[in-house]
Amino acid sequence: MAKRTPASDSDQAPKAPRKTKAAPQPTLVTNQTPAPETPLTAQAVVSGLYSRFTDFDIHLFGAGKHHRLYEKFGSHVVEHNGVTGTYFAVWAPSARYVSVIGDLNGWDRGSHTMNVRWDGSGIWELFVPNAGSGLTYKYYIVHESGREVEKGDPYAHLWEVPPLTASKVWDTYYEWNDAEWMQNRAAKNALNAPYSVYEVHLSSWKRDPGNPDRELSYGEIADALVPYVQEMGFTHVEFMPIMQYPYAPSWGYQITGYYAPSSRFGSPQEFMRLIERLHQAGVGVILDWVPSHFPGDAHGLYEFDGSHLYEYPDPRKGYHPDWKSYIFNYGRPEVRSFLLSNALFWLDRCHADGLRVDAVASMLYLDYSRNAGEWEPNMFGGRENLDAISLFKELNEAVYKEFPDTQTIAEESTAFPGVSRPVYTGGLGFGMKWMMGWMNDTLRYFQRDPAFRKFHQDELTFSTVYGYTENFMLPLSHDEVVYGKKSLVSKMPGDEWQQFANLRLLFSYMFTHSGTKLLFMGAEFGQTAEWKFDTSLDWHLLDYAPHKGMAECVKALNKLYRTEPALFDRTFTEDGFEWIDTSDRENSILTYARKGHHPEVSLIVVLNMTPIPRTDYRIGVPTAGTYVEIFNSDAREFYGSGVLNPQPMASEGEPWHGKTNSLLINIPPLGAVVLKAKA
Question: How far apart are CA 193 and CA 198, in angstroms?
Fold first, then answer.
C-alpha cells in the first residue's frame, strides 16, 4: 500500500445547516458542565424491557469471539409490546451518560437517554417507539471526566452523504436473486481455478459524461460495468474500499462507517443490486477491507466514548505516522469482535466472494514506518504485533469455516512466513498473497531500454525461486500509477508503437506466469494519464487503434487464461512451471512451459524482450508432435506488426535446450508467442 493522502478531519468541511433545534456539529467539547442526571423517559423505561443481547452474546463480545455483532449493535426497527420503533445499542464503557440525538428530538441531548446494561459490558440501549427507517441520528456521549462527544453509529448501515456525518436508521434486507452463482461459486473461487481480477475505484472508473463532476450511482455503475467486465473476460472485480469514508482523497482507505456501503453512490440495497448483477453475469466480487487504521474524524471511532476505546492508547502502537490515522487495539476483545463481525458482515449480508485485506505488513510489525525509540517490542522482545497475528489467524479460520467458498487475500509486502498457509500448519491462513516482489522486479525490468535488458534477465527469472512459498497473486494495482509513477504504458520505453508492444508483452508474461492476476482499471486499454481519484478514466482513448488493440489483447489473454488449464491447474505448485531456456541473454529471449494435470495439454511460452524480430528461432519442446500458435501479442488486431506463426509446426528430432525434440518458430519484436501441441 502506498503512502496515501493522510486522513483529514472531514468535520472541518462546510456543512449545510440542519433545520432542527440546536443541531450541534460533531466537534469535541471539553471543560463544559456535564449533562444533568436526566430522569428516565417513557422510552427509556421501555428499553429496560427490550434487548437484542443474550447473556451468551455478552460473553462472546467480551471474549472477542462474537462474529455477528451487526445483528445486535446499531439501530434496528423492531416491534416491542405491539409498538413498532427503533432499538439503539452502542458500546461506550467509559461513559457516564449517553443519549440518542437527531431527527427524532431536534438534536436535544436530554430527551432520549440510553440505559447502561447492568452486566458491566459497557453497552447502552434504548427503544424509541414510533421511530422508523431513515431517521438521522448520532450518539451524545459524556465521558466520566465530563468530556462530551457526538458520534456516528459504528454499526450503522447507512450514513449521510459527505460532508454531512450523521448515521441513519436503515436495514440490510434484500431479496437476493443470485442463487445460481452462490450455489456454484466454490468452483469459481477455488485455488485451482482461473482468477483474473479487475480492480475498480467506483468514484473514478466512469463519471457522468454530461457532468464530469457527478459520480455515478450504484445502479448506473452496474449498467456500464457489468457488461464491460463480462466482455473483457475478467473473472472477478475488486472494489477499492466502498465502506463509508468522509474524505475522498483517501480513496476510501480512511473509513468511519465500517458496516455501511458508501452513501455517495446510493443505499445498501442498491450496492447489493450491483453485486447481484455481477453475480448474474458470472463475475465474482472482492472487497477491499481495511482493519489496519481509521481516521481521527470527530464523528468516527477515534476516542469514541471520550477514551481510547477502539485504538491502542499508547501512540507508539495506536498512531500511524504514514497516514496520520489510528490503529485498532487488536488485543482488546471487544475490538476483535468488532473487526471479526465486520469481515463476516460483508460476506454474509452483501454476498461478497472474498476480502482483500489492506496493509497487512503495517499490522504485523510494531516498527512499521517507525524509527528506533518510536516503538515498543512485544513481550518476547520482538518486532511482531502478536495481537494482530492472532487476529489474522482467527479471522481466516472464521471466514473459511463459515464461508468456505470465498477467499481472503493479503496485501503483504514483506517476507513474513506462511501468510497464505493454513493456520494449523503455523500460517496466517489467507487464501492468497499479493506478490509484491514480482511486481517491483517486473516493472523495473520493463522500464529498461531493451538494449540493456540482457544484463538484467534475472529480474524476471528470480520470481520462480520463491514463487511457490505462498499462493501468490500478481498485482498491477492502483499503487503503481499514482504519485508521479506514471501510467503503465507511459512507463514503457521507446516510441508509441514500442510502448504499447512492451505493455502487451508485459501482460502476456503476467498472464502466462504462475499465480492469479490483478489489473487496475484503465491499464487494460493503455490509459496514458496517471490515475486521479476524482476524474473518470479516459474512455475516449478506445477510439484510437493503439488503445483498442491493447483492450483486444487483454480480452484475448483473459480468454486464453480461462480456457487453458495449464495456466491455472497447478498455478501454486512448482510442477506447473518449467524453464526451458533462460540462457539467451544476448537476444533477451525467455522460453518456459506451463503444465496442467494432463501433460499433453502443456503450453510453451516464448518472450522476445527486444524490438528485433527473430525468424527460424529454435526452441526445445518436451514432446514430439505438431504445435500450433494459440496466442501472439504481435497480432494485427492488437496493433502489432503481424509477425506470426500461422501454420502448424512439426517438431524435429534435433535435441535443443536439453530436450530431444525442437521447433523452428518466428518470434515477433517485443512480443510473446504461446504454442500448444496439436491433439
Answer: 16
User: Measured between alpha carbons, how far is residue 318 from residues 7, 249, 276, 304, 548 in Å?
Assistant: 15, 23, 38, 14, 48
Q: Which helix (H) or strand (E) holds 97?
A: strand 95-102
Tell me how far apart the alpha carbons of residues 64 and 427 are, in angstroms, rounded to a whole number.
21
C-alpha to C-alpha distance for 78 and 51, rounded to whole angstroms: 11
DSSP letter string, 512-557: HSSSEEEEETTGGGT--SPP-TTS---GGGGGSHHHHHHHHHHHHH
Query: Which part of the chain has CATH 2.60.40.10?
Result: 10-168
State whether the Cα torsion 262-264-269-272 is positive or negative: negative
Q: How far apart are CA 455 and CA 464, in angstroms?
A: 18
Give the list of residues 6+ apart from residue 458 with CB closer than 8 angstroms, or none: none
Element holding 362 (H helix, E strand): helix 360-364
Q: Using only C-alpha atoms, what is the Rg of the chain? A: 28
The third-level CATH classification (topology) of the domain covering 10-168 is Immunoglobulin-like (2.60.40)
Q: Is 358 a catalytic residue?
A: yes
Q: What is the 3-state secondary structure (H, E, C) of 374-404?
A: CCCCCCCCCCECHHHHHHHHHHHHHHHHHCC
**Sequence-distant (≥ 6) Cβ neighbours of residue 440 within 8 angstroms:** none
Per-residue DSSP letter, 216: P
Residue range 528-569, pLDDT digits in tens: 999 999 999 999 999 999 999 999 999 999 999 999 999 999
Q: What is the distance between the alpha carbons of residues 135 and 678, in angstroms, rounded to a whole number?
A: 66
Q: What is the DSSP string of 608-626?
A: E-SSS-EEEEEEEESS-SE
- Respond yes or no: is residue 581 known to be catalytic: no
393-396 long-range Cβ contacts below 8 angstroms, 24+ apart = 393/423, 393/428, 393/429, 394/336, 394/340, 395/339, 395/340, 395/343, 395/429, 396/423, 396/428, 396/429, 396/430, 396/431
Outline which parts of the chain fall under CATH 2.60.40.1180: 574-677
* Catalytic-labelled residue, pool 125, 160, 288, 358: 358
Residue 605, CA distances (Å) to 567, 621, 667 in order:
11, 11, 11
Burial class (CB in 10 A: 0-12, 13-18, 19+), 571: buried
| Rounded CA separation 398/562 (Å) | 30
The runs of H, that is alpha helices, within 233-359 are: 268-280, 315-318, 333-348
User: How far apart are alpha carbons 264 and 270 in whole angstroms?
Assistant: 11
19 contacts: CB under 8 Å, gap ≥ 6? none
Q: Tell me the pTM.
A: 0.93
DSSP 8-state class, residue 481: G
Residues 619-655 pLDDT 10s: 999 999 999 999 999 999 999 999 999 999 999 999 9
- Is residue 43 a contact partner of residue 129, using CB atoms and an 8 Å limit? yes
CB 193 within 8 A of CB 282: no
Q: Name which of 336, 230, 311 is nearest 278 in CA terms.
A: 230
User: Which among 208, 40, 43 has a CA at the least distance from the CA of 126?
Assistant: 43
Question: Nearest CA to 240 among 436, 363, 411?
Answer: 411
Residue positions counted in the chain? 679
Of the listed 411, 459, 564, 569, which one is catalytic?
Answer: 411
Confidence of residue 37 (pLDDT cuts 50, 70, 90): very low
The CATH code for residues 574-677 is 2.60.40.1180
Other C-beta atoms lying within 10 Å of the C-beta of residue 575: 10
